[in-house]
């Protein structure tokens, strides 16, 4: 008797498992890569993670392909609800669970992101009702712009900085130090940031950059050349804390410097063509 | 006949050129005048504001009622900040005008701190009154000098654009320019009043260098040893391609700055002369598409830190920027995160190479710390928060507060209406030391056609 009950139970379990497999089979077509997805990640896996979390009702912000704080809290809630370890990191267990309970229409989601549409991806609501095409009312500022070339519609930025702040600094760095070694460009970006902190200089990035006579590239208009990617990377490194200038607030090119005063400053080091000093 | 035609054409061309030249000249003058007027406005506003600042400080000193003291201090704070902006718009950079700017920053910091304080509970101390008295004197001196300059400028019709010209000249001596020489007088008269080291109200923003590189310990190394360390960090077999040398006397810690460059790849390292610690490491090369996830990259970063003998480090922030991952680590002592000793590591996501490492803050601030137990429990600390903030995560942390003292706090990650905030609550008093809204992602701007 006891034995038979056990067998029945086993059979039942097997049937359930099979049912589960059948149900989830069509979903398996596009699933996560091997990557363990964590805070700060960007790309296709993040898009899928956000879409699946939204499908299950845990995530209600934009599906943008960047694992930010909202995604982090959504994932933790999900882990909590399903009794997993709450670490906010999407490992195998969390990904498998998500794949088994949600549907992911990769083609649909990717198309919306590339076309720049505003959309949601909740389970149980028809897809066409969740899309608001770009240009049809709404944020008019985007009209006439190209479609998004990337698979994500957002980017990581250092806390409190906009892509435009980075662009402005990259312009200054490119104008001042293109042709300098990479560390020389980071050092120039770091000097701008050191000046913002210094009591003797303006308190904003734009204030420091556009202070009359502060930078030759601003005076002669070279700041408006289109910066290359290197300048932008240098700026991001400097904002994230790198400072090869050693805390400098001045630098000059010894071949062209005319002010005797600048030679009197205590020098820290030379990088490329520039001498950095306090 | 031909002669007359040619003469006619030439005459026409000459008139045309003359008219064109006149227009150009006119335009150039207009633009110059516009720039000049901007300078003039900033300068006259600066003198007016310093004058008002002087009066307001005087009024504050004469004031008895505390009710009006706070608004008055806030007003001085606003004026000093505006005056600082004016200075920033004058073509004075590369001219020693720092002391006046430092004065403006000092008065701004001092009045801000006192304006936001509850003066009923904690009135201005005798020491603070004395300091205000001194700031009043300083403001008076600067005001008098600036009014003199203003008089010269107006009386002699002086132009700021001439200052700009004079400063860009090769001439080392600018004393023939009236504006420059009078500004030098202002600067000299303000000399000596920023040497107020004993004042302990945190009004000296440049003074947060308390434990200067105590973390740098060990035997002094020579240049060859430094190059060997760098070669290892750059993943090179020999030190032959590495160039560089000792840092100058302006450096806050004696360093070897070393770099190398070969076929599209470059590297740079700052290595302390004492102990041979790597303080900064940067590598640059072209990268392929990411093949590594942030999680694996984090492991690489952690392994690297262990090689630098930095153990007990906790990863507090990870971000992917295209094909690199940047990780922030802080040391953890008795379960307390020590933010002053933050270390950054940059990992290439195409092959997992370490592209950057920054331990300047770590070596600058790291020292033996005695961390007391918090007086408040986690529950007591979170109770003090705004009711609308939902607490998600809590850690103990050591941060530098407004007055640059290390303070034990509860670091609370909370959410309110889909926004995430990082809140530091003093672990002994329950006071909110700092709140930062977390904005680490931004919608991508689509390029306009």
Automatic annotation (TrEMBL), chain A:
Task: Reply yes or no: does the keyword Chaperone apply.
Answer: no
Write down the InterPro entries for this protein, in alphabetical order.
Cell_wall_hydrolase_SleB, Peptidoglycan-bd-like, PGBD-like_sf, PGBDSf, SleB_dom1, Spore_cortex_SleB
The organism's taxonomy opens as:
Bacteria, Bacillati, Bacillota, Bacilli, Bacillales
Q: What protein am I looking at?
A: Spore cortex-lytic enzyme
Q: Which regions are flagged for Polar residues bias?
A: 145-157
Q: Signal as a keyword? A: yes
- Source domain of life: Bacteria
Family membership noted in the UniProt record? Belongs to the SleB family.
Automatic annotation (TrEMBL), chain B:
The answer to keyword Signal applying to this record is no
Which Gene Ontology biological process is one annotated for this entry?
spore germination
- InterPro entries assigned: PepSY (IPR025711), YpeB_N (IPR048402), YpeB_PepSY1-2 (IPR014239)
> What are the entry keywords?
Coiled coil
Q: Where is the PepSY domain?
A: 375-435
Its domain of life reads: Bacteria
Q: Which residues form the Sporulation protein YpeB N-terminal domain?
A: 27-162
Q: What is this protein called?
A: Spore germination protein
- Which positions fall inside the Sporulation protein YpeB PepSY1 and PepSY2 domain? 181-371
Pfam families (UniProt xref)? PepSY (PF03413), YPEB_N (PF20769), YPEB_PepSY1-2 (PF14620)
Q: Which residues form a coiled coil?
A: 125-152
């Amino acid at each position: 008797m006891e034995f038979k009950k056990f067998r029945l139970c086993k059979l039942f379990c097997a049937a359930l498992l099979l049912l589960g497999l059948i149900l989830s089979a069509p979903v398996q077509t596009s699933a996560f890569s091997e990557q363990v997805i964590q805070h700060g990640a960007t790309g296709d896996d993040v898009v899928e993670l956000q879409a699946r979390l939204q499908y299950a009702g845990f995530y209600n912000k934009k599906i943008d392909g960047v694992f930010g704080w909202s995604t982090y809290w959504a994932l933790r809630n999900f882990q909590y609800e399903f009794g997993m370890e709450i670490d906010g990191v999407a490992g195998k267990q969390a990904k498998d669970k998500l794949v088994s309970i949600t549907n992911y229409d990769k083609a649909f989601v990717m198309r919306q992101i590339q076309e720049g549409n505003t959309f949601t991806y909740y389970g149980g609501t028809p897809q066409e009702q969740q899309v608001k095409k770009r240009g049809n009312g709404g944020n008019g500022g985007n009209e006439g712009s190209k479609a998004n070339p990337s698979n994500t519609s957002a980017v990581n930025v250092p806390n409190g900085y906009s892509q435009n702040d980075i662009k402005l600094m990259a312009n200054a760095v490119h104008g001042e130090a293109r042709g300098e070694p990479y560390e020389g460009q980071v050092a120039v970006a770091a000097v701008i940031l050191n000046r913002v902190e210094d009591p003797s200089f303006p308190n904003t990035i734009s204030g420091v950059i556009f202070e009359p006579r502060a930078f030759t590239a601003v005076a002669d208009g070279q700041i408006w050349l289109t910066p290359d990617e290197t300048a932008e990377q240098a700026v991001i490194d400097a904002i994230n804390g790198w400072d090869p200038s050693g805390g400098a607030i001045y630098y000059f090119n010894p071949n062209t410097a005319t002010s005797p005063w600048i030679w009197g400053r205590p020098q820290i080091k030379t990088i490329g063509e520039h001498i950095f000093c306090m | 006949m031909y002669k007359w035609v040619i003469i006619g054409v030439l005459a026409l061309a000459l008139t045309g050129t003359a008219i064109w030249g006149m227009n150009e000249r006119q335009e150039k003058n207009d633009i110059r005048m516009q720039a000049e007027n901007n300078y003039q406005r900033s300068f006259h506003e600066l003198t007016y504001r310093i004058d008002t600042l002087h009066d307001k400080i005087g009024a504050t000193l004469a004031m008895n009622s505390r009710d009006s003291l706070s608004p008055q201090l806030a007003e001085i704070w606003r004026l000093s900040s505006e005056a600082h902006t004016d200075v920033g718009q004058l073509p004075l950079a590369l001219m020693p005008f720092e002391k006046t700017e430092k004065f403006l920053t000092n008065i701004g910091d001092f009045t801000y701190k006192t304006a936001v304080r509850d003066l009923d509970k904690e009135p201005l101390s005798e020491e603070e009154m004395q300091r205000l008295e001194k700031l009043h004197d300083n403001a008076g001196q600067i005001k008098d000098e600036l009014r003199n300059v203003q008089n010269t400028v107006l009386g002699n019709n002086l132009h700021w654009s001439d200052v700009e010209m004079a400063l860009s000249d090769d001439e080392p001596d600018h004393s023939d320019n009236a504006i420059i020489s009078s500004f030098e007088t202002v600067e000299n008269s303000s000399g000596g009043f920023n040497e107020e080291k004993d004042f302990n109200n945190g009004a000296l923003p440049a003074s947060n260098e308390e434990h200067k590189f105590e973390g740098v310990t060990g035997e002094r190394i020579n240049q060859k040893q430094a190059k060997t360390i760098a070669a290892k960090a750059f993943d090179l077999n020999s030190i032959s391609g590495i160039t560089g040398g000792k840092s100058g006397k302006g450096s806050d810690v004696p360093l070897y700055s070393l770099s190398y460059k070969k076929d599209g790849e470059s590297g740079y390292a700052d290595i302390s002369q004492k102990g041979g610690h790597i303080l900064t490491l940067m590598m640059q090369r072209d990268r392929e598409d990411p093949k590594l996830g942030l999680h694996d990259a984090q492991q690489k970063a952690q392994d690297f830190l262990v090689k630098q003998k930095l153990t007990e480090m906790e990863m507090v922030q990870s971000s992917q920027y295209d094909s690199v991952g940047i990780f922030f680590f802080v040391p953890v002592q008795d379960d307390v995160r020590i933010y002053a000793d933050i270390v950054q590591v940059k990992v290439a996501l195409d092959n997992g190479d370490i592209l950057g490492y920054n331990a300047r803050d770590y070596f600058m601030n790291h020292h033996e710390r005695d961390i007391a137990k918090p007086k408040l429990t986690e529950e007591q600390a979170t109770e003090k928060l705004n009711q609308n903030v939902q607490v998600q995560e809590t850690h103990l942390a050591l941060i530098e507060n407004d007055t640059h003292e290390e303070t034990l706090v509860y670091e609370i990650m909370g959410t309110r209406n889909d926004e995430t905030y990082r809140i530091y609550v003093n672990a002994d008093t329950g006071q909110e030391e700092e709140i930062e809204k977390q904005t680490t992602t931004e919608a991508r701007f689509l390029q306009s056609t």
